[in-house]
């Protein structure tokens, strides 16, 4: 299992289109992926779960991945919230 706390740099946070792109990226990996915010944990492969967190710009989330490609999924999702 790998965990990493990241800050959302996207202007819109993880709302609407960026949220859908984030979920699509997470679904490319076989590892189980979760996001934790304010002690609430959701499946990062669920658009409804992600939208329920209402993650805004500048907020911190914890990415949690468990599986054979956990390193790659954490790295790629971290880059997504910095670059997009």
UniProtKB/TrEMBL annotation:
<dbReference type="InterPro" id="IPR002114">
    <property type="entry name" value="PTS_HPr_Ser_P_site"/>
</dbReference>
<dbReference type="InterPro" id="IPR035895">
    <property type="entry name" value="HPr-like_sf"/>
</dbReference>
<feature type="domain" description="HPr">
    <location>
        <begin position="1"/>
        <end position="84"/>
    </location>
</feature>
<dbReference type="Pfam" id="PF00381">
    <property type="entry name" value="PTS-HPr"/>
</dbReference>
<dbReference type="InterPro" id="IPR050399">
    <property type="entry name" value="HPr"/>
</dbReference>
<protein>
    <submittedName>
        <fullName>HPr family phosphocarrier protein</fullName>
    </submittedName>
</protein>
<comment type="similarity">
    <text>Belongs to the HPr family.</text>
</comment>
<dbReference type="InterPro" id="IPR000032">
    <property type="entry name" value="HPr-like"/>
</dbReference>
């Amino acid at each position: 299992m790998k965990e990493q706390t990241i800050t959302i740099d996207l202007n819109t946070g993880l709302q609407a289109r960026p949220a859908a792109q984030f979920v699509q990226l997470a679904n490319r990996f076989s590892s189980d992926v979760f996001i934790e915010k304010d002690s609430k944990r959701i499946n990062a492969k669920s658009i409804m779960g992600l939208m329920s967190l209402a993650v805004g710009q500048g907020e911190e989330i914890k990415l949690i991945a468990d599986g054979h490609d956990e390193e790659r999924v954490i790295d790629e999702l971290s880059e997504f919230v910095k670059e997009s």
